[in-house]
Structure to design on (398 residues):
């Protein structure tokens, strides 16, 4: 029986941490990993953590007990995966320079190419590295299934003009010697029903390649919302098992969000309240620097204790501390008036948050904490200061 943990940020813990900060719930991460482990055990699939979504070595000891490894987006993430996670490392990038590829090869078990030209450019270097190192690095190609149901173009790798993956017509007749696997990615926070339709389209276009005896593995990419409460686990397991049986291949999945869904909180404090036609609460955080997906996606993050702004007696626009005019987290309603110094807690902030932080305008980066209600622990992972800002711009220590 998989235990369930509250998705609410415990008030007593909130009071103990500085703001702005991210608070990572170890118990929820472990609960998510148990769900993913169940999928692995039922299907034989191998599940990887997508470092692009979540890269926090302080909790890798929990995740690595359950998942088979990580997927990386280049040499930096590949090295982090090898040195800190310690299991399989699969690396994909739209393109590699010669120097980048050498570092990718050093830290990776699977290396995926985005085009036939990249494969040909680096084929000799891969063979040379294999001979020199004695390591049997597996090579794969990313293909474009030419079908997705992602509503926001910014996150849709299958839109016309996409730079991601090879189309089926391009692959026919191509020299794919040395390739043992194929990869596609066409989901974004979606369920198994969407995956089922994508797989059907994928098989129609690439079934001939899957049937090639040289192909021994397939990677179904990320975007699988596997740990969401209403996710259809039975359908996912059925799809994986069918692919394994029909094509005699190893199946990989590389979710990021599913691993840490609902396991992170972002805390910020109200610094000032301004009247300018509407009430504006200026916080010590920032959408631009701390929560960039709020502006890029865009989306309206859930705030504990808030309600619909249109129906609320007390409505506030939450604005960030940077000088960007559009640094707005969103409009929120409250049962009571906000007070200066009041703490606000946003949910589901483990993913695509601190991995995307920046120091625009010199805005200070949030501290990182982890906690466990099960073990009764709260730990400061690290804080950031002027040295971090200056070192990045000058390369010099203070």
């Amino acid at each position: 029986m998989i235990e369930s943990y509250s998705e609410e940020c415990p008030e007593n813990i909130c009071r103990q941490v500085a703001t702005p900060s991210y608070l990572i719930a170890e118990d929820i991460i472990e609960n998510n990993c148990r769900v993913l482990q169940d999928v692995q055990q039922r299907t034989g699939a191998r599940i990887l953590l997508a470092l692009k979504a979540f890269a926090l070595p302080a909790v890798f000891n929990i995740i690595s007990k359950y998942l088979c490894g990580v997927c990386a987006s280049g040499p930096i993430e590949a090295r982090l995966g090898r040195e800190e996670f310690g299991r399989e490392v699969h690396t994909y990038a739209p393109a590699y320079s010669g120097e980048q590829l050498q570092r990718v090869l050093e830290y990776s078990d699977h290396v995926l190419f985005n085009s036939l030209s990249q494969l040909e450019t680096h084929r000799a270097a891969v063979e040379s590295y294999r001979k020199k190192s004695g390591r049997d690095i597996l090579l794969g190609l990313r293909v474009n299934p030419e079908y997705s149901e992602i509503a926001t173009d910014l996150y849709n790798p299958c839109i016309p003009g996409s730079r991601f993956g090879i189309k089926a017509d391009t692959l026919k007749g191509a020299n794919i010697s040395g390739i043992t696997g194929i990869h596609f990615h066409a989901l974004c926070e979606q369920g198994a029903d969407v995956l089922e339709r994508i797989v059907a389209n994928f098989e129609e276009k690439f079934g001939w390649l899957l049937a090639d005896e040289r192909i021994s593995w397939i990677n179904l990419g990320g975007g699988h919302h596997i740990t969401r409460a209403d996710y259809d686990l039975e359908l996912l397991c059925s799809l994986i098992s069918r692919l394994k049986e029909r094509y005699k291949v190893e199946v990989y999945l590389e979710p990021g969000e599913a691993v840490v869904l609902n396991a992170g909180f972002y805390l910020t404090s109200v610094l000032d309240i301004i009247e300018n036609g509407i009430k504006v609460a200026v916080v010590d955080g920032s959408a631009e620097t701390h929560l960039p997906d709020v502006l890029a996606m865009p989306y309206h993050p859930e705030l504990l204790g808030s309600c619909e702004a249109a129906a609320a007696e007390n409505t506030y626009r939450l604005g960030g501390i940077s000088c960007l005019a559009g640094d707005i987290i969103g409009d929120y309603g409250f049962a009571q008036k906000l007070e200066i110094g009041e703490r606000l807690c946003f949910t589901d902030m483990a993913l695509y948050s601190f991995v995307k932080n920046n120091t625009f305008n010199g805005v200070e980066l949030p501290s990182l904490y982890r906690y466990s209600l099960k073990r009764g622990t709260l730990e400061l992972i690290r804080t950031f200061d002027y040295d971090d800002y200056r070192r990045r711009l000058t390369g010099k220590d203070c």
User: Anything to note?
Assistant: The mean pLDDT is 95.
